[in-house]
Design goal:
The chain is mostly helical. It is built from 20 helices and no strands.
C-alpha cells in the first residue's frame, strides 16, 4: 500500500502562486529559445509560444496581485492586529513565521500564533497547527494531537483539514488505519472545495472492496448524525453516497430523518426508507414508523412497528408499547402496553421507555403483570 502525503498548499497561497509564476516564466523562456533537445514543427511552436505568453501575462498579473496584497498591511501592523485578537491576522502572522516571509523564520512562534487563531475556531490555523504537530516543527511531534486539530478543521468544512484527516486515516498516522473512513473524509474534502482529491480518491477506491466502502460509509453517516456541529453540506455527501451500488439506503434514510439536524428532510427520508425496504433493509421500518407518528398517522405507525418486530428489529417494541399505552392507532390496552414495554426495558435494555413501563404497571394488578411478564419471557425465547 502506497502512503499518501498531506498538503498545506491552500494555507500557503502566496508561496504557491509565486512558484507557479516562476515555473511558467521558465517554461516560456525555454520554449522561446532556439535550443531544443527535441523538434517541434513551426506551426505548433507558434501556438505553444502564444499559449505560454498568455499564461505568463496571467501569471505576472497574479504575482502583482500577491505583491499588492502583501503591501496592504505592514508586518508591524499585522502583528498589532493579531495581538488585538483578530484570528485571521493571527493566522497570517503564524504563516509568516513558519515561512520566514517578511520576518525571520521562527517555527515556535508560528505554533504560538496558529494556536491563538485555532483556539478561536479558525479552521486554517487548526489545520496548520495540526501539520506542525505532525512534523514536529516548533513543537514536540504528536500525531494524536495533529489529528485532533485537523479533525476540528475538517468539521468546519476546511478543505485541507478534511483532506489531511483523510490521509491520516489512510496511513494510520495518529489513529487506527481505516481506508474506508479515509475515502469518506476525501469526499468531504472534495465537497468543501479541495480540487486535489482525485488521485487520492482513485488510489483508495482501487483498493477498497464494495463491502468495505459500505461499512465505512455506514460508520461515517452515524458519525454525522451524532455530530450536531458538522458543517459540510451533508445533503451533497448523502447524494454522493447514494450512488454506491447497492446504495446505503437504510443509513441514508436514518440520516435524513435525524431530528435536530440542519439537513433533516422527511420527504427524502421517506423516499430512502422505502428504497431500503425494497432492498430488504428491514431497519428502515422503525424510521418509517417514526415518520408516520410525526404525521399523526398512528395506525400506519403501529403497522410499521409491528412489521419491524416481525423482521426481528426489536428496537421497535418500545414504540409499539407506547401506542398501546396511549391508544393511538390501536385500541388502548394497558396489558398489551405492559407486554411490549416489559420487553423493551427488561429484555432489550431500552431505558428510555422506563417511564412508560411504570405508567402501564400502575394500571395493572400484580396478577395481570405476572401474566404479561410470563408471556414476554416466552415470546423472547421463541
Amino acid at each position: 500500500m502506497l502512503r499518501l502525503k498531506m498538503r498545506s498548499w491552500a494555507d500557503n497561497g502566496s508561496k504557491g502562486r509565486s512558484q507557479f509564476v516562476t515555473s511558467v516564466a521558465v517554461a516560456f523562456v525555454l520554449v522561446s529559445t532556439s535550443r531544443y533537445p527535441f523538434q517541434i514543427p513551426r506551426k505548433e511552436m507558434v501556438q505553444v509560444r502564444h499559449t505560454l505568453r498568455h499564461f505568463v501575462l496571467m501569471a505576472l498579473a497574479l504575482l502583482g496581485t500577491v505583491a499588492a496584497q502583501a503591501s496592504q498591511v505592514s508586518m508591524p501592523d499585522l502583528i498589532k492586529k493579531a495581538e488585538s485578537g483578530d484570528p485571521e491576522a493571527q493566522f497570517q502572522v503564524g504563516r509568516a513565521y513558519e515561512d520566514g516571509a517578511a520576518i525571520e523564520q521562527n517555527e515556535e512562534l508560528a505554533v504560538r500564533w496558529y494556536r491563538k487563531a485555532a483556539d478561536q475556531g479558525y479552521s486554517k490555523a487548526q489545520n496548520s497547527l495540526g501539520l506542525l504537530y505532525r512534523q514536529g516543527k516548533g513543537v514536540a511531534r504528536d500525531k494524536v494531537e495533529a489529528v485532533r486539530w485537523q479533525r476540528k478543521a475538517a468539521l468546519q468544512c476546511d478543505p485541507n483539514g478534511a483532506y489531511n484527516l483523510a490521509i491520516a486515516y489512510y496511513n494510520g498516522d495518529g489513529l487506527d488505519a481505516d481506508p474506508g473512513l479515509a475515502f469518506a473524509w476525501l469526499l468531504v474534502a472534495k465537497q468543501c472545495g479541495n480540487l486535489g482529491t482525485k488521485s487520492a480518491l482513485d488510489q483508495i477506491t482501487s483498493e477498497l472492496r464494495n463491502q468495505q466502502r459500505e461499512i465505512a460509509e455506514t460508520k461515517f453517516i452515524e458519525y454525522m448524525i451524532a455530530t450536531s456541529d458538522f458543517k459540510p453540506d451533508v445533503d451533497k455527501m448523502l447524494t454522493t453516497m447514494g450512488t454506491i451500488d447497492p446504495p446505503l439506503a437504510g443509513d441514508i434514510c436514518r440520516a435524513y430523518a435525524a431530528k435536530g439536524m440542519k439537513w433533516r428532510d422527511t420527504t427524502k427520508a421517506q423516499s430512502w426508507c422505502e428504497k431500503a425496504i425494497s432492498l430488504e433493509m428491514e431497519e428502515a421500518y422503525i424510521v418509517l414508523g417514526t415518520l408516520a407518528e410525526e404525521r399523526n398517522d398512528f395506525s400506519k405507525a403501529a403497522e410499521l412497528y409491528r412489521k419491524a418486530v416481525e423482521e426481528e428489529d426489536f428496537s421497535a417494541v418500545g414504540s409499539l408499547g407506547i401506542l398501546y399505552l396511549e391508544g393511538k392507532g390501536v385500541r388502548k390496552d394497558p396489558a398489551e402496553a405492559y407486554f411490549w414495554l416489559y420487553l423493551a426495558t427488561e429484555t432489550y435494555g431500552q431505558v428510555s421507555f422506563k417511564s412508560g413501563f411504570d405508567l402501564a404497571a400502575q394500571q395493572l394488578s400484580d396478577k395481570e403483570k405476572q401474566e404479561q411478564e410470563k408471556r414476554a419471557k416466552y415470546w423472547a425465547e421463541e
